[in-house]
Amino acid sequence: GSDDLAAQYSESLRGVVRDLRAACGSSDVPMVLGEIPVGFMDMANDDRFRFAERVNDDIVAVASSSDRTAVVSVMGLDHKGDRLHFSREAADELGRRYAWKWLGLTGHLTPSLRVLVDRALDPPTLSGQSLAGRGSKRRRDENGSDRA
Question: What is the DSSP letter of 86?
């Protein structure tokens, strides 16, 4: 990647969301975006990932500033030993988190379901946090979606 491409990522992602919705024939199609696992990527020693935190912040910002769009956190998920790909267990959990966000965006989260699951499927995003663990800058709306 380059500085120019990284700087354009946010607008490019907004274009993808807009174009996909247009292809579906509705600007109201729910979209669920996912974070990059910056917590376990070897950014210090692998130049391929030098823009990973910046891109991850853009993913969260696009989801937070777009209607009917949510972002799935990868907080607490582990890799399969290569510091790049999710483990099987993490991939399973990621699927549950995507489903949770989809249910929230489509109005299918009941109050009792929220109480039963609590925040287990909706941890804070990694965006804006150092690996030392600064607090999240995100907050949740009434549907459990991240908002700026």
Answer: B
